[in-house]
Design goal:
Structural class: alpha+beta
Number of strands: 8
Low-confidence stretches: 1-8, 307-343, 438-542
Radius of gyration: 56 Å
Number of helices: 13
Shape: rod-shaped
Order of helices and strands: HHHHHHHHHHHEEEHHEEEEE
Strand order of the largest sheet: 7-6-5-4-8
Length: 609
């Protein structure tokens, strides 16, 4: 009973029976506010979509570029950053889920409910307006009946007064008095009829008014109240639902954040330091102490260099000419046409045998190459075995297939397998040689010292070789120990330019080709192939020494066109490295002059000024 009284006490129909206009305004404002909340959800969803899009664009812009070399030795910071980017991309996906759920589960519900509320409100207000109009019409009818009754009553009173005056006047005839009496009766009858009509309309109006304010209009107000409460409950539910959308993705977002923390914890500064060591370690030993040079004692190496220089000067006197810088540049420019041959380069720009790398890095590259070739050999062997089995099956049952169709594929597979095995043996041999080499040598950069403005080449015995100016052309030539690869065809053309013959098969005579002629030599040296012609004076003119060099490491000539050298040996530079990692040198021995190519990284060059 108390609950019913409470419900009745909070009823709009009872408490707000006379606030029809205010209730209409209130419900309109409530629905407008509800739709504004829907616009808020719509804009928020758009922001979530835009946020997710920007997060994905951010991840794409900051995604590290793929590098095969870096993938092998990735720093922990780079790995952690990649994991962070992955988690951020997952966060973007969750923001998209939030936006989608807000649109499907919240915004659509708000739009549908707002439409229903507007329709119900319009219907209720129309009904309330009809009820009010009906009451006002009845009240108007009552007012007209009342005015008619008042008019009839006044006329009846006036007729009664006229009859009384006529009846008291003895001067009037009986006919006149009778006329006044009849008029009085008529007016009284009309007054009574009007009174009855007024009483009847009053009863109808009171009944309609009572029904209007106690039943009909309260029902309309109660429906408006229910409509407004439905809007309020909808607001409550949709706010909760929008929060639930966030709750649903919060575990995944939490895992993303945990992934970021885990990525941060995986960073190890010590491991990164070791990766730097493995990546850049050259294998050279630090230079030893610089010995004291006693100038009062004779330097046998200087005497040897003086003798070598005098020999080269004698060659110039034989021709009466000298090599100018313009000639050297012109010569290099001609042979530079053929530097496009990159057969001796790998896909990453390094030489195939990685001889241009420091010892430690070379061993790592060779080991990786051997492992790669072993995998290729295993794959090709498995493919070959499969083809063999297929061929055996076809031979056993010709209905399954023709063995000849497999024969060609099998031959190709065997040929590929042979080539891979030969290449594997080659790189295995290079790796064994690299592992057998001692790593106690000093780096070439550590062996270079500047004294008194001159280039000085330090020898292992502590003596120094001062290079003086032997050319009047002025400029210092740069050290080409770190130059890049030159094509194999260039050396072949170089020999043709210098008067040498090329093999009939047109193969190159570069140190790497292995197909060219034997060591190039001067006339009378007893070296070279049977096809070689004596070199004329132009050869000496073109190959005047450009400087001297000292062998930092021993080198065994394993290819045509190269010459061996021992550690510490002094040679003359007759052609600088053109980019292939090889320098052409010559030396004077008991057999005469002999020349060839040596690795640039194995020597230290001191060019004449």
């Amino acid at each position: 009973m108390a609950v019913q009284e409470l419900e009745i006490g909070t009823s709009w129909g009872k408490e707000l029976w006379d606030q029809f206009d205010n209730l209409a305004t209130h419900t309109q404002k409530g629905i407008d506010f509800f739709e504004r909340f829907g616009n808020f959800i719509r804009d928020r969803s758009a922001i979530e979509v835009e946020y997710a899009l920007k997060l994905r664009r951010l991840v794409k812009n900051y995604q590290p570029k793929k590098n095969k070399e870096d993938e092998e030795n990735e720093f922990s910071t780079l790995i952690a950053f990649k994991n962070v980017l992955k988690e951020v991309a997952d966060l973007a996906g969750q923001r998209e889920v939030v936006a989608e759920n807000l649109q499907n589960q919240v915004l659509q519900g708000i739009t549908l409910l707002a439409k229903n509320l507007r329709d119900e409100r319009k219907k209720s207000l129309n009904q309330g307006a009809l009820l009010t109009q009906s009451l006002h019409t009845q009240i108007g009818t009552l007012e007209r009946a009342k005015r008619s009754y008042e008019k009839a009553f006044r006329e009846a009173e006036k007729a009664l007064e006229g009859y009384q005056k006529a009846d008291a006047d003895f001067h009037l005839s009986r006919a006149d008095v009778e006329k006044q009496r009849v008029n009085m009766n008529i007016r009284n009858s009309q007054s009574e009829d009007a009174k009855s009509e007024y009483a009847n309309q009053l009863q109808i109006t009171n009944k309609l008014q009572q029904q209007h304010y106690q039943t009909a209009l309260p029902e309309v107000f109660n429906r408006l109240q229910e409509l407004d409460e439905k809007r309020t409950r909808g607001m409550k539910e949709f706010i909760k639902r929008s929060a639930d959308v966030e709750y649903e993705v919060s575990p995944i977002i939490a895992r993303c954040l945990e992934g970021m923390v885990k990525a941060a914890d995986s960073i190890n500064e010590k491991d990164d330091s070791m990766i730097v060591i493995e990546k850049y370690q050259s294998g050279f030993q630090p230079p030893g102490d610089i010995p004291f040079e006693d100038l009062s004692k004779p330097d046998p190496d200087a005497a040897n260099n003086s003798q070598t220089h005098n020999s080269s000067t004698g060659l110039n006197h034989m021709t009466g000419k000298g090599t100018t810088k313009d000639k050297l540049k012109k010569r290099v420019g001609i042979f530079g046409i053929f530097t496009g041959n990159k057969n001796n380069l790998s896909t990453d720009g390094l030489k195939e045998d990685f001889s241009d790398l420091p010892p430690t890095q070379r061993r790592k590259k060779l080991a990786a190459k051997v492992q790669e070739l072993q995998q290729k050999v295993a794959q090709e062997q498995a493919a070959s075995d499969g083809l063999m089995k297929m061929k055996g099956v076809y031979e056993a049952n010709s209905m399954l297939g023709d063995p000849r169709t497999v024969e060609e594929q099998l031959n190709e597979s065997v040929n590929r397998l042979d080539r891979l095995r030969i290449e594997l043996q080659r790189y295995q041999k290079l790796l064994d040689q690299a592992n057998s080499q001692t790593c106690n040598q000093h780096s070439p950069q550590a062996n270079r010292v500047i004294q008194n403005g001159q280039r000085v080449s330090r020898h292992s015995n502590g003596s120094s070789n001062h290079e003086n100016n032997h050319d009047d052309n002025g400029e210092d030539h740069p050290d080409d120990a770190g130059s890049l690869s030159r094509s194999a065809s260039e050396s072949s053309v170089q020999q043709a330019q210098n008067g040498l013959n090329i093999n009939n098969n047109g193969s190159s005579a570069s140190p790497e080709s292995g197909l060219g002629t034997s060591h190039t030599s001067l006339p009378g040296s007893g070296q070279g192939s049977t096809n070689e012609q004596p070199l004329n004076d132009e050869y000496y003119d073109a190959d005047q020494p450009l400087g001297t060099c000292r062998a930092l490491y021993p080198f065994d000539a394993t290819s045509e066109g190269s010459i061996p050298m021992s550690e510490g040996e002094e040679l003359q530079v007759i052609e600088v490295d053109q980019g292939d990692g090889w320098t052409r040198v010559r030396r004077f021995s008991s057999k005469g002059w002999e020349e060839g190519f040596v690795p640039t990284s194995y020597i230290e060059c001191t060019l004449y000024a």
